[in-house]
Amino acid sequence: MNEKMNIQNHNSYLLVDLGAVRENARAIISSLGAGTELIPVLKDDAYGLGIIPVASTLCELPEIRTLAVAHVCEGLALRAAGIDRELLVMGASLPFQLGASVEAGLTLACSRRGFLLELSAAAERCGKRAKTQIKIDTGLHRIGLELDELDMLLEEYAACAGNVEITGAFSHFSNIADNVLNDREFALFLHAVERLRSGGVALPTVHMACSASSERCRQYNLDAVRCGRRLYMERPDWQTGAIREAASWRAFITQVKQRRAGESVGYGGAVTLERDSLVATVGVGYGDGLNLDLFRIHAPVLAGGKECPMLACCMDQCMIDVTGTDCRVGDEITFFGYDAEGKFLSSQRVAAMVNSNEGCGLTSALSPRVVRVYAK
User: Fold this and answer.
1) What burial class does residue 376 get, using C-beta atoms within 10 Å of its C-beta: 0-12 exposed, 13-18 middle, 19+ buried?
2) Which candidate among 14, 15, 215, 255 keeps its CA 20 to 30 Å from the CA of 51?
3) Mind listing the pLDDT tens digit for each residue in 17-42?
4) Can 267 be counted among the known catalytic residues?
5) Does the annotation count 338 as an active-site position?
């Protein structure tokens, strides 16, 4: 099936500009300086953009040696697709996942006492040496080893070093907006790293920086920076122009009707029209991942060359006020990103309207019913 037919057989599509992803990665690499590498974070299907196409594109860059994911299943999917870079699983892996992980050569996070011994046993059963990175809990209190647990970790490592290779250590900031807290957590991480190294662990790569910290707090960069959101968009309050938004969500109008003032639109009379309006129905709803909060504030979409307000949303359809346009059935509307004429509605701007988790929260929410289409 060609790309045009694939689009036409769906009511909406997410157009992913892989060329923009690649150039964004290049821009990040050039901003990091010598001695600091980029670790792209491809969790949650690369924030909804498609983990395999995005990973394949990033692997065109020889500077990228490691990719990060959240769960074992994501790492296994990348291996099955032929991705041969180091794959760091940042989340906690379950005991019954260790065998498949070792067989696939995944690098697992060691985030609890006893894990190294379990991993060593799995490696011995597989006849392969396992790889791990030590996850340090510096304050997020999600997963990770705390300072008073490191002596026990060193004892476990001494018992299984023949089966397990430690390739690094990492942590995560708990609130990147708090500079004082950042400094305290960073110092705690460095202290943990020094404790491990003095205990005989080499730790070739240590990293704590994320997208947000790498944009404004380069002192935290260390050996590597893990970037997820920054691969696809800049912070809304830190626009340099170096990063181009890579995804555009477009859908098709299925009906256009003139409605009179006083008529209601949507379930339960969600909206009562204050004036005569041209109302377009679009074959997309919250079942596709459309954020309902956007309708409560009548957030804009791009339709007919202008910004038009959302009116009401159902599971599979929504209604847009397209008054003042010449929209017809089959025309496209754009929820965020670029329309076909190059007009732009930033996903970061849209997400900020409802305090969403930035624009990547919008893309991550999109269901499989939104077909992903790729442009180089």
Assistant:
1) exposed
2) 215
3) 999 999 999 999 999 988 999 999 99
4) yes
5) no
